[in-house]
């Protein structure tokens, strides 16, 4: 194993994933680009978080923030937001967009595990959306999120279920048939079943509060939150206040 490979393994980073998003970094805020789905679902994600945990006046961490779409959405609701990511090009775009939007978000290029060691039990809310399926060790990210949130605070995750339907819709459909995402965006073997994710969260002291599916209607071209967790889903967890 090369030194670079060992370093990436220790950092829980897949260099191919970082490179993939770095190549698209300049398109993060183009609502008609490959990131259109993220812009379309962002109001639903923000509403889900706000309804359960509240955002106004809350200290919030966005793990795997990318170009800052969700970070800015939460900042607009009055949250004090910090975003972390390992793709420097994406973070540069996120910082530049603040000049246009006028929002206030603090961005840092740092691994979640290191940030958790430096800032234990610091945040009221921690969110990690569309990231777990892109790292070698998702359980390590879940543990870091649990360490970062204050007792009694909330942690939110979203990812992709692993079953034939999700492969058909999220990979074949979204990437190859509809062209909603670049080919190769997702690796099916890294998708995570809800039961697996809930087991990870319970193992680090997070209790499930709510689970919601996120579906796309190709006829209406609209996304909605519902009980269908077969493909995309989000969970809200709470850390034991004791």
Automatic annotation (TrEMBL):
Its EC number is 2.1.1.222, 2.1.1.64. Pathway: Cofactor biosynthesis; ubiquinone biosynthesis. One of its GO terms (molecular function) is 3-demethylubiquinol 3-O-methyltransferase activity. The keyword Nucleotide-binding does not apply. S-adenosyl-L-methionine binds at residues 45, 64, 85, 129. It catalyses: a 3-(all-trans-polyprenyl)benzene-1,2-diol + S-adenosyl-L-methionine = a 2-methoxy-6-(all-trans-polyprenyl)phenol + S-adenosyl-L-homocysteine + H(+); a 3-demethylubiquinol + S-adenosyl-L-methionine = a ubiquinol + S-adenosyl-L-homocysteine + H(+). GO terms for biological process: methylation. Belongs to the methyltransferase superfamily. UbiG/COQ3 family. The lineage of its organism: Bacteria, Pseudomonadati, Pseudomonadota, Betaproteobacteria, Neisseriales. Gene3D superfamilies: Vaccinia Virus protein VP39. Keywords: Methyltransferase, S-adenosyl-L-methionine, Transferase, Ubiquinone biosynthesis. It is an enzyme of class 2 (transferase). InterPro entries: SAM-dependent_MTases_sf, UbiG_MeTrfase. O-methyltransferase that catalyzes the 2 O-methylation steps in the ubiquinone biosynthetic pathway. It comes from the Bacteria. This is Ubiquinone biosynthesis O-methyltransferase. Pfam families: Methyltransf_23 (PF13489).
